[in-house]
Automatic annotation (TrEMBL):
GO terms for biological process: mannose metabolic process; oligosaccharide catabolic process. Residues 513-591 form the Glycoside hydrolase family 38 central domain. This is Alpha-mannosidase. Belongs to the glycosyl hydrolase 38 family. CDD domains: GH38N_AMII_ER_cytosolic. It comes from the Bacteria. SUPFAM superfamilies: Families 57/38 glycoside transferase middle domain, Galactose mutarotase-like, Glycoside hydrolase/deacetylase. SMART domains: Alpha-mann_mid. Keywords: Glycosidase, Hydrolase, Metal-binding. Coiled coil: none annotated. One of its GO terms (molecular function) is metal ion binding. It holds the Pfam family Glyco_hydro_38C.
Length: 989
């Protein structure tokens, strides 16, 4: 070990003092000029013609989020042999953080994109003798890294608060000649050093490598930098083949580009261009590179902003070297989006790839989302995808996931061949250390031999570098390393499945034991998304009905644009609430405008359908009947009336439900009058607000750590409590509360004709590093609870028998949670996702079930203003509830009927006869704009279902399709569904 350490120490100094300095040599003379944009970025046509001023090396530049264009001119009278390059240092603070600080896109004088410059990739190829390069440099703040205090509040997260002081100093710019032989020697030395440093390498090989390295440095000491002579002692290691190493690695070029995170959407557009420019330069230079890019949105931004670059990339797509992957509009969160939105992520993405590249993706590519819904296997398979890839589950904090290659089976029984790269990163660099770790970490050793590494700088983009490709070439057949081959994900998956056709199975969701706070952070993102999803459902339904009946034309372009806006904002750092303030401020504005647009589209369609009149017409876009209004139709006439509710003291009573409040405004009883069932545990309370400290160990906006439970404050102080019967016959209690710097108006309502109790919370939140929960002590004994997810529900334990159970202390639900076997308590919500259900000790002895929803948080990083301000939350608690009751309550709360003046009822365009557990999720025109109607339905209870589909218009036939609306089989109106199955039917007209 001592000899190995000495050899490695000698190498470090030799590289620093004698070898790396010889890699490049400055040539020629150079001058720099600059132009500050002073606002939003401009195109190349403007930047190239700007009024430049002289600029000196060492001069500060770049106010936060601003752009500076640099013009670099150089003269190299007699260009020497070698690669001529412009190298730039924009003033980077930490060269290990590419994509997280200043970066630039380089153009020639004609506006042709050349390449990007970033830390550790700071060069641009040029030609002499006269050089002119323009650099569009973005002064993006660096929020964390080796020299930055991590996870601290900062004003730099919004252009409105970031200030005007320059962030960077132009540290260097020079035209150099690069010695390719020295670069090759550096790669050779790093590989040998990597073998020496890794204990997993055979001890004999490490000894041989140590001696070879010592002799190489001895040669350097004696003869200077004579590259062939220094390399010659290394040949005994470098020229030795892999000798049947049992592991095979597919290396795929990749640059994870967060659609927004520590930068706004507008900066991501530029990151995409920079990354693509880097990739194309490597391919044009002859490097053996296969590169993937997911997110159809990123491709579309590239097409809009840099059409020439897009066309160059499309040529490489045709060659099979630049691979559109994933099949999604963006790499979205998969836990929070609703069912139809999750479908549209894939249909919009796959259709875009088909339209522009003539192909669809066979691989779902989601390396960095925060857990994976159990509905996803069925959705990806129905979208024409065969394989699934992620690595995020390696971030689990408690339980190590037992597999890297597996068959992941969803809630409906659909499976997808899945791989988790054992490198435990999606930003691979292909070092010897990383390759050796990959082989050693692979959990299917002995049964399978293949894994995949996505390599290239990512999160902020950048992609592969020539140094990484040099490592890949050396690792293709190198003793001591697994064999590495640069190839497509499809090639890897095809070979892996052929080798391992019967892998272990994993059933249900892939729960990430980290980042649980993303279910709650930035509550406005959750509300905006939930509202937009349901308005889109209504807009499509009524516009399709109007189209088929001839009442109005279908607004194809407007609704497609609306969907793409929603899908973009479901990206896994926007909807989860983990981006900087700028991102969420802009998203709130976008949601507001989008909701107005959708309401206008819905109003126009409903007006066309109801006709010109003054009679009340009630529209119901939900797939369940509500108050006498048919699912998917509209009723003419006044609302159905029920006996008014009553108030006696603090008890609110309707013909279905009696609710009693304590003097502190909490609920002590919710009783179903038909069955006599009591929902609230003896001595327990419902509607109880509870405040906890919220200091996660690391990732503020992302995490809720288990230790938050150690301290709790019940919010029971009452400023006022008033009970009354409203004009519409509802019994209502209004409770005003204040705590710390915040206030809550809590309204408890029992409505005629509607079972259960509604709770509305208007929260004026001004707490930081606290979280607020709404709790219910329910009188139900059940070992498991059900939580709605896309197209069904997942079942999770209410106990903590195992470490896997205990790790699920904060979990996701969409519109409802149900506790009971099979009858119990249901809680529906209109915009809340974070929940917990657990067995707890009763106040008077015994056990109860605690059901709590997380409302708001106050994390400091990356947005110190997270959740500050006003919020509204709606809940509906049902006693004696089945899963069917929970499903219906979820739809009623999120798709309430809408009344408009008119003259005519509207017959549902399509309806189902038969089992009530099968529901219609979407009614829309076919994407090919043929005029056919597409109906998507699913089984919602987890049991088989049988229905007959009826239409209000003549059809030429029905066919089953996949999610891309491609024909699968002809069918009649009678349909059978397995539990949680999604079925798409095309009605030909």
């Amino acid at each position: 070990m001592h000899t190995e350490d000495i050899a490695l120490d000698r190498l470090i100094r030799a590289l620093r003092d004698r070898i790396r300095p010889a890699l490049t040599r400055p040539v020629g003379t150079l001058e720099v000029a600059a132009w500050d944009v002073g606002g939003e970025p401009v195109g190349a046509a403007t930047g190239l013609r700007a009024p430049y001023r002289p600029f000196a090396i060492g001069q500060p530049w770049g106010r936060p989020w601003d752009t500076t264009w640099f013009r670099v001119r150089a003269t190299v009278p007699d260009p020497p042999p070698g690669d001529l390059e412009l190298v730039v240092d924009l003033g980077w603070r930490d060269d290990s953080m590419p994509g997280f600080q200043a970066e630039a896109l380089a153009y020639d004088a004609d506006g042709t994109v050349l390449k990007a410059v970033q830390p550790r990739n700071n060069w641009v190829p040029v030609r002499g003798p006269d050089v002119e390069v323009f650099l569009e440099a973005a002064a993006n703040p660096q929020f964390f890294g080796a020299h930055i205090e991590q996870f601290r509040p900062t004003p730099l997260g919004d252009v409105h608060t970031a200030g005007n002081e320059p962030l960077y100093t132009l540290a260097a710019a020079a035209v150099v000649v690069r010695d390719a032989a020295v670069a090759g020697l550096i790669a050779d030395l790093e590989l040998v050093a990597g073998l020496i440093a890794e204990p997993a390498v055979d001890s004999t090989l490490r000894a041989v490598a140590t001696r070879a390295l010592q002799r190489a440095i001895d040669t350097l000491d004696a003869r200077g930098l004579d590259v062939p002579a220094v390399r010659e002692p290394l040949a005994v290691v470098l020229d030795s083949p892999a000798d049947g190493h049992p592991h095979r690695i597919s290396a795929t070029g990749h640059a994870h580009i967060d659609s927004a995170w520590l930068w706004p959407l507008r900066e991501t557009r530029r990151k995409v261009a920079r990354t693509v420019a880097n990739v194309l330069q490597l391919m044009d230079a002859g490097h053996d590179l296969v590169h993937v890019m997911s997110a159809a949105q990123h491709w579309e931004w590239l097409r809009e902003d840099h059409p020439a670059l897009f066309e160059r990339a499309r040529e490489r797509v045709a060659e099979g070297r630049f691979v559109p992957v994933g099949g999604m509009w963006v790499e979205s969160d998969t836990v929070l989006p609703g069912g139809e939105a999750m479908v549209r992520q894939f249909t919009e993405g796959q259709r875009y790839f088909l339209e522009h590249f003539g192909t669809t993706s066979r691989v779902a590519w989601l390396p960095d989302s925060f857990g994976y819904s159990g509905a996803l296997p069925q959705i990806v398979r129905q979208a024409g995808i065969e394989y699934f890839l992620t690595q995020k589950i390696s971030w689990n904090r408690v339980n190590r996931f037992p597999h890297h290659t597996l068959h992941w089976v969803g809630i409906d029984g659909t499976g997808v061949f899945t791989h988790f790269p054992p490198a435990d990163t999606y930003n691979g660099e292909l070092t010897a250390k990383e390759l050796i770790y990959t082989a050693e970490n692979f959990r299917e050793k002995g049964a399978a031999s293949r894994s995949l590494i996505p390599f290239g700088f990512g999160d902020g983009g950048g992609g592969p570098t020539r140094e990484m490709l040099a490592r890949a070439a050396r690792a293709a057949d190198q003793q001591g390393l697994p064999r590495v081959r640069v190839e497509t994900p499809e090639a890897f998956f095809d070979a892996a499945r052929a080798e391992y056709p019967d892998p272990p199975q994993w059933f249900g969701e892939l729960y990430l034991e980290l980042h649980r706070g993303t279910l709650t952070s930035q509550a406005a993102m959750k509300r905006g998304n939930r509202r937009a999803e349901h308005l889109l459902r209504a807009a499509e339904l009524w516009a399709t009905t109007a189209m088929v009946t001839g009442a109005a034309a279908y607004p194809y372009d407007a609704l497609r644009a609306a969907w793409r806006t929603v899908l973009l904002h479901q990206f896994h750092d926007i909807l989860p609430g983990s981006s900087i303030r700028w991102v969420h401020r802009a998203a709130r504005q976008t949601y507001e405008q989008l909701i107005r647009t959708l309401e206008e589209l819905i109003g126009a369609a409903q007006t066309a359908l109801a006709g010109d009149g003054t009679a009340p017409v009630t529209f119901n876009a939900a797939p369940v009947e509500i108050a006498g209004t048919p699912a998917g139709g509209a009723r003419l006439g006044p609302a159905v009336t029920y006996p008014a509710a009553t108030v006696h003291g603090l008890t609110l009573t309707s013909e279905t439900t009696a609710v009693t409040l304590a003097t502190d405004g909490t609920i002590t009883s919710v009783r179903d009058l038909a069955t006599g069932t009591e929902a609230i545990a003896p001595g327990g309370r419902a509607g109880l607000l509870q405040l906890h400290p919220d200091y996660p160990a690391h990732w503020d906006a992302w995490d809720v750590d288990r230790h938050y439970r150690a301290s709790v404050t019940d919010v029971t102080d009452v400023q006022s409590l008033e009970v009354s019967v409203t004009e519409d016959g509802a019994a209502r209690a209004v409770i005003e509360r204040r705590f710390a710097s915040s206030a809550v108006r809590q309204t408890v309502t029992v409505r005629p004709g509607q079972p259960g109790v509604e709770i509305v919370l208007e929260v004026d939140w001004h707490e930081q590093q606290r979280l607020l929960k709404l709790g219910f002590d329910v009188d139900v004994h059940a070992e498991r609870a059900r939580f709605e997810t896309q197209f069904g529900h997942v079942t999770r334990p209410t106990h903590e028998n195992t470490s896997w159970d205990a790790a699920r202390f904060e979990v996701a639900a969409h519109r409802w949670v149900h506790v009971g076997e099979p009858v119990g308590v249901a809680l529906a919500n209109d915009a809340t996702y974070g929940h917990e259900v657990r067995r707890v000790a009763r106040h008077g002895g015994g056990m109860a079930t605690s059901l709590r929803a997380t409302l708001v948080r106050g994390p400091q990083f990356p947005d110190p203003q997270t959740d500050q301000g006003r919020h509204e939350f709606r809940f509906h608690l049902l006693a004696a509830a089945t899963v069917a009751d929970a499903v219906a309550a979820g739809y009623r709360l999120n798709l309430p009927p809408v009344e408009r003046p008119g003259v005519a009822a509207v017959e549902p365009l399509v309806r189902l006869e038969g089992d009530a557990n099968v529901l219609i999720e979407a009614v829309k025109p076919a994407d090919d704009r043929s005029g056919d109607v597409v109906v998507r339905l699913y089984e919602s209870h987890g049991v088989p279902g049988r229905v007959t589909l009826r239409t209000a218009f003549p059809t030429a036939g029905l066919s089953l399709t996949d999610l891309l609306e491609r024909h699968v089989a002809d069918t009649g109106p009678e349909l059978r569904l397995r539990p949680f199955q999604i079925v798409t039917v095309r009605l030909r007209r």
